[in-house]
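FAQ

Q: What does a record look like?
A: Structure on top, sequence underneath. For example:
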């Protein structure tokens, strides 16, 4: 276990999605796949977000609510603003179209490569989500399940599956399968088998997502990614081995970012663990380049807040607060140079506010919110997955997903 979880190399691999995409795109000549947020917004007659909240036009401050009833009213505003920002999910979901592509036996589990449908398009590589499914052999059925989301690595699902990747501590799907959970490691759009080479050329998922987004004019790139995480639950619910009332999700870096977003949108997740997956927009030194740049297909309306991030009606505090009362672990490295240190320096305040919101739902739920700062808050701990986080995630999943065993 020497050096486990926190090698600098992990941070190097994780950089691309949150920081290096800007540099990668800057190095590329203009291409047909470039995204012009101004044109996109003009065509749809969209401006700044229309929802006003207690956070609008102010520096980061405490959530106003002091009771659950007050919080539920405040929560509706943040949720409405978030849904405006990411764009709508389809009202009717397509058939799951599940299939098994290959299967292999291992001592503790069966591992299958499976496919299931995202949203329809003319490009099969985009519209079929490929994933590794692990089914433990010895556990009592139906079993709890965990969706394992990859970070920003070209191999996508192969890293959490332990198939391809230099860091064994990133093999979440294999790790939890060995401990009796059904696990699913899907490719996000632009990674693994869900690419036609667009990400490899540009360091940006838009070219690979374009066949789907062309048919979903109001959906953003991040909206599609989050929808696909939700589709992972749709798939797991088709499996007889899975107890659909005991499904969790885990991810680091890009994966942690998606966990922190999706928990407030997808109540079928009963627990989530996110590592290095948030930073305060208002204080991120790279906000103008990272979130409000020319290639901001992830969240196009953030372009309107370039140079004025305080005008946003919410920040990551409110995005994560939407998860309550779902049990939630947040690991934050206070020396995170990917989010930039100013974006995470308010972590003690953010975590205390999240604990307070969870407390509105009762003491038992409040105890299930877990905040981890590696090295007891040491500011030399950079963007990585640390032993303290792994231990806490194990305990959270055991407590929530195995409570009835």
């Amino acid at each position: 276990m020497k050096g486990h979880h926190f090698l600098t190399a992990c941070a190097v691999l994780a950089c691309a999605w949150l920081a290096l995409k800007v540099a990668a795109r800057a190095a590329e000549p203009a291409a047909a796949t470039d995204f012009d947020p101004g044109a996109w917004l003009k065509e749809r007659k969209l401006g700044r977000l229309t929802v006003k909240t207690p956070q609008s036009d102010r520096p980061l401050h405490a959530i106003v609510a002091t009771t659950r009833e007050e919080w539920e009213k405040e929560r509706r505003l943040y949720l409405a603003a978030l849904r405006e920002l990411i764009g709508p999910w389809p009202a009717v979901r397509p058939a799951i179209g599940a299939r098994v592509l290959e299967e292999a036996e291992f001592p503790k589990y069966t591992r299958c490569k499976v496919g299931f449908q995202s949203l329809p398009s003319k490009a099969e590589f985009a519209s079929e989500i490929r994933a590794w499914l692990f089914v433990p052999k010895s556990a009592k059925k139906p079993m709890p399940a965990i969706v394992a989301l990859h970070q920003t690595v070209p191999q996508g699902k192969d890293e959490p599956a332990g198939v391809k990747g230099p860091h064994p501590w990133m093999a979440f799907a294999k790790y939890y399968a060995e401990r009796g959970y059904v696990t699913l490691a899907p490719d996000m759009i632009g990674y693994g088998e869900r690419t036609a080479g667009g990400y490899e050329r540009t360091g940006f998922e838009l070219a690979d997502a374009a066949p789907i987004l062309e048919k979903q004019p109001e959906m953003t790139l991040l909206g599609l990614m989050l929808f696909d995480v939700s589709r992972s639950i749709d798939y797991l619910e088709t499996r007889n081995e899975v107890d659909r009332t005991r499904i969790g999700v885990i991810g680091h870096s890009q994966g942690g970012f998606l966990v922190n977003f999706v928990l407030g949108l997808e109540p079928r997740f009963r627990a989530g663990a996110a590592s290095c997956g948030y930073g305060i927009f208002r204080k991120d030194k790279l906000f103008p380049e990272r979130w409000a740049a020319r290639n901001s297909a992830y969240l196009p309306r953030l372009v309107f807040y370039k140079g004025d991030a305080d005008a946003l009606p919410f920040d990551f505090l409110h995005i994560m607060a939407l998860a309550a009362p779902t049990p939630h672990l947040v690991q934050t490295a206070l020396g995170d140079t990917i989010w930039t240190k100013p974006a995470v320096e308010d972590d003690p305040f953010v975590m205390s506010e999240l604990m307070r919101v969870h407390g509105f739902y009762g003491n038992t739920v409040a105890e299930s919110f877990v905040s981890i700062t590696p090295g007891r808050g040491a500011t030399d701990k950079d963007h990585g997955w640390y032993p303290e986080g792994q231990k806490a995630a194990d305990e959270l999943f055991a407590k929530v997903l195995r409570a009835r065993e």
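Q: Is there anything notable about this one?
A: Residues 8-401 form a domain with the Rossmann fold fold (CATH 3.40.50.1820).
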